[in-house]
Write a structure and sequence with these properties.
Distance between the termini: 35 Å
Strand order of the largest sheet: 3-2-1-4-5-7-6
Number of strands: 7
Largest sheet: 7 strands, mixed
Helix content: 10-25%
Radius of gyration: 15 Å
Number of helices: 4
Structural class: alpha/beta
Mean pLDDT: 90
Shape: globular
Strand content: 25-35%
Low-confidence stretches: none
């Protein structure tokens, strides 16, 4: 696993260890991450990354949020309640020397504290098949700026919940990425 582009291009991220199998982490592959960020930076959604405040729900290794930082986001809040995931996120933030631009919340994505400021770009990559995406989006309402772009990775294409507009859906192997826009 590595950062694909931007300031930290080519930087290797701390991988999920063999002893971490019980953590049930499913990092987004480099290929899917590269395709996803090509869509984000292709112009269809404007410029959703540059100077963005990013919320990375079910952050896992932190690869999506760190890729956004590398490409110009101003701050990322990582949310993951797993001890192994938190350890990996901390290690990857330290490796890239971006502690000043990151916050790590060790909580459930559906039990977020109040936000200091809403975020412009939200990555949502819940464990597959557990219906946690809708719960997390609902809990994150105060974290989501009007008009924010939501990137939701799941095992199946998702419908837009109330308050969100479906913009696009893409299939990458066993994963579907749904792009939503928060109501303004």
């Amino acid at each position: 696993m590595r950062i694909i582009a931007g300031r930290h291009r080519g930087s290797a991220l701390t991988p999920v260890g063999k002893g971490d199998a019980g953590a049930h982490l499913r990092p987004t592959t480099d290929r899917v991450r590269e395709s996803l960020f090509n869509v984000l930076q292709g112009g269809r959604f404007g410029d959703p990354i540059n100077d963005a405040k990013v919320l990375d729900l079910f952050a896992g290794t932190g690869a999506l949020g760190l890729e956004a930082l590398s490409r110009g986001a101003s701050h990322v809040t990582f949310v993951d309640n797993g001890r192994v995931a938190q350890k990996l996120i901390r290690a990857n933030i330290a490796k890239l020397r971006r502690a000043d631009d990151c916050t790590l919340l060790g909580t459930n994505a559906d039990a977020l504290p109040p936000a200091d400021a809403p975020c412009d770009l939200i990555f949502l990559d819940p464990p597959y098949g557990q219906n946690l995406g809708i719960k997390a989006l609902s809990a994150a309402r105060g974290w989501i700026a009007p008009g924010a772009l939501i990137v939701w990775e799941e095992q199946a294409a998702q419908l837009a919940p109330p308050g969100f507009e479906l913009l696009d859906q893409r299939r990458y192997g066993d994963s579907w990425v749904t792009f939503l826009k928060a109501a303004s």
